[in-house]
Amino acid sequence: MNENYKYAAHMISWVDKLGVPEIPLAKSAFSQLKAYWIDNENINLEKLKEDLWSWVDSNDGYNISVPEVAKMRIILCLAYEDNRELEDVGYFEDLLVNLGISHEDAYKRT
Question: Which of 6, 23, 63, 67 is 20–30 Å from 91 (CA)?
Fold first, then answer.
């Protein structure tokens, strides 16, 4: 399994633990992204990223202290096929910490 898939599986496990926000786009996007990463289904990642960024931008998307915004950004992380940079800089893990997950738990690999 390549490193992108491993990291995506790690992120998916966290979203499953945290729960998907009660936002139709979040539920739809996460379902599609799980199918993409787990079942190798072909989806339009660019369109999904565009839709997710549109939601983030129109919902005070830089205020990651709002749980729904942080979770939408977490789901957005899954829309990047090459997630090496996300892992290298710890962006996803920082979002987890912002949601109240301990730094130790956030940076532990599942």
Answer: 23
